[in-house]
Design brief:
Bound molecules: zinc ion
Subcellular location: Membrane
Mean pLDDT: 93
Structural class: mainly alpha
Membrane topology: Multi-pass membrane protein
Strand order of the largest sheet: 1-3
Protein name: Acyl-CoA desaturase
Pfam families: FA_desaturase
Helix content: 55-70%
Low-confidence stretches: 1-13
Order of helices and strands: HEHHEHHHEHHHHHHHE
Family: Belongs to the fatty acid desaturase type 2 family.
Length: 317
Amino acid sequence: MTVVQDVVSEEGADPKMPPGVLVEGPVVDAKFRDSYISFAIMIAGSIAALVWAFTQGIGWVEIWVFVGMFSLSTVGIGVAMHRLFVHRSFRCGPVMRAFFGAIATMAVQGSVLKWVSNHRRHHLHADKPGDVHSPYYDGFGNRIASFAKGMSHAQGGWVWDQATTDAEYYAKDILADPIAMFFTRTRWYWYALSAVIIPGAIGYAFGGVHAMIGCVLFSGLFRSYLMTMATSLVNSVCHSDGRFGYRRFELDDGTTNELVTTILTFGEGLHNNHHRFPRDAYLSHAWYEIDINGLIILGLGKLGLVHDIFIHPDNER
Ligand SMILES: [Zn+2]
Ligand SMILES: [Zn+2]
């Protein structure tokens, strides 16, 4: 594998990039393969879903499956992928860890290994050269010319950078975790379960073949795409340096807390709070900051299903 460090010395490449970034080789090829296939399926499915909705109509079964699967995968990204696997905000036994591995992967946002590696790199270099999806610097550490271009890079353009994060550098714990690696290896099965099989089965059970097709397109594929776009608002809107939302803490980055993103992501939009206290399991610092994912973790703690819930000592509320 080629890391940027080596490229700098060998080829005189731009020294702005820190170590832990791969610019070529099989890992970058694999990233493109995964991204092309999953986005092609989600976007084709979303177009078909809109055509289906306008020509065939959408009923209550499709809407409830949409809401249910959107909620499950939003908790999967927020509670499981982000706060458990990336930040280790709490601990749990192997059965719960496997459950969290499943719902994290069912968000269809890449494997646990890839998501964890990217997000840790994002925190280490937040809005500086080396950040994987900053509105201010591209994937090679070059300043992005305009705010609009930066927003579009952070919202999704970064996925197509000819570079990726080295898991050996950022996620050794995940590489050594058999549960997380099981879900990393079997990710396509969980994507299929989330976007096709579960919505289709529920649709068929409650409304026959017509509802089955509607559920696969609208509540499976279209929902996966919309949910990914909602999560991505955290990278764009919540790094807008106060243009959207507000800053509770003056940090050395562009993070903000933003209400719409917070609602759509069940709390992840409290992103300025999160960058101040990255390991905290609960992100709210005021009654109007509603962190549903954090409340779920606290609730699971009360039930004894998770433990060692982390709150920074400076942050007693
Ligand atoms: Zn961030
Ligand atoms: Zn984070």
